[in-house]
């Protein structure tokens, strides 16, 4: 006999099917967007998934469109919440999963921003090395900077080769492109360019020094990240211990989910444990951010 207020398994089955249908619809939409991007960007190129003669920039643009279309991983919280709720015969896990969707989305966005920042930082180092090499090979500064593919810097980079081609203010265009997070090294490139144009100093030597300094900073960040990897791993392991304990209790037949989700004492322990878990993760993240100089989170 079903207790008053309890949610029957057919209701969970319906909600689970709804979440599965939503996830399948998102995956189908992603595939449709990918096919549309390939069709639009590939045009009338040769046969094949991308076409062997398709320019690298267009291919990279199609990859970005496909990546943007597939950013729906946070919706996986819904079927997981449905499964746990069905298992524990309670709607509380599903409600928690619904609340967790925007939080997971925020976390994934922060990770994407961090990766984009790292790509821009690497692109600045590559710019310094490439342009310096082209200058030492005898090419003019404008030709050297126009030959560099600054796709990682975003739309702001388009003003740099345009200024170099038509005699515009290249240092100002570089500073404008360097306003994005991770591309701050372009301000040093702009200073070298301005000094080379105004005072006749060697641009190649200045760019090599800027690139070397940025490489040293990158190596220091990577070494610090390697040292903090142990702290992150420990925090993740400690955060997963309650789930492991619940799995062990279920395997032993203690039915911990039923106790946690259907008794006042269990609900109180669940709320207190969730608060302590969140406080512990926030505290660990604060420690890691302080050790990393505020540049990255746990």
Automatic annotation (TrEMBL):
One Pfam family, short name: T2SSF
Q: List the GO terms this entry assigns under cellular component, sorted alphabetically.
A: plasma membrane
Give the UniProt keywords, A-Z.
Cell membrane, Membrane, Transmembrane, Transmembrane helix
Domain Type II secretion system protein GspF residues, every copy: 128-249
Stretches that traverse the bilayer: 6-28, 235-253, 259-276
- UniProt cross-references to InterPro entries, sorted A to Z: T2SS_GspF_dom
Membrane topology annotation? Multi-pass membrane protein
What is the protein's given name?
Type II secretion system protein GspF domain-containing protein
């Amino acid at each position: 006999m079903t207790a008053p207020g309890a949610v029957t398994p057919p209701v969970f089955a319906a909600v689970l099917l709804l979440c599965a249908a939503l996830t399948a619809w998102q995956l189908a939409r992603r595939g449709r967007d990918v096919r549309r991007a390939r069709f639009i960007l590939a045009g009338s190129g040769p046969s094949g998934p991308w076409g062997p003669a398709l320019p690298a920039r267009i291919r990279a643009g199609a990859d970005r469109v496909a990546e943007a279309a597939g950013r729906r991983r946070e919706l996986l919280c819904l079927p997981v919440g449905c499964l746990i709720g069905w298992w524990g015969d309670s709607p509380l896990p599903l409600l928690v999963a619904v609340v967790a969707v925007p939080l997971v989305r925020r976390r994934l966005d922060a990770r994407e921003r961090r990766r984009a920042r790292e790509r821009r930082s690497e692109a600045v180092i590559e710019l310094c090395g490439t342009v310096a090499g082209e200058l030492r090979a005898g090419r003019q500064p404008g030709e050297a900077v126009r030959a560099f593919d600054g796709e990682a810097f975003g739309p702001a980079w388009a003003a740099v080769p345009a200024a170099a081609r038509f005699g515009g203010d290249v240092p100002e265009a570089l500073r404008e492109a360097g306003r994005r997070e991770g591309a701050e090294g372009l301000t040093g490139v702009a200073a070298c360019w301005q000094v080379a144009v105004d005072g006749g100093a060697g641009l190649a030597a200045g760019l090599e020094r800027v690139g070397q300094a940025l490489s040293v900073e990158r190596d220091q960040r990577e070494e610090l990240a390697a040292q903090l990897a142990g702290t992150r791993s420990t925090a993740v392991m400690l955060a997963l211990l309650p789930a492991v304990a619940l799995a062990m209790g279920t395997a032993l037949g203690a039915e911990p989910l039923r106790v946690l989700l259907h008794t006042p004492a269990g609900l109180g322990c669940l709320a207190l444990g969730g608060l302590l878990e969140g406080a512990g993760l926030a505290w660990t993240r604060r420690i890691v951010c302080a050790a990393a100089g505020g540049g990255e989170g746990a």
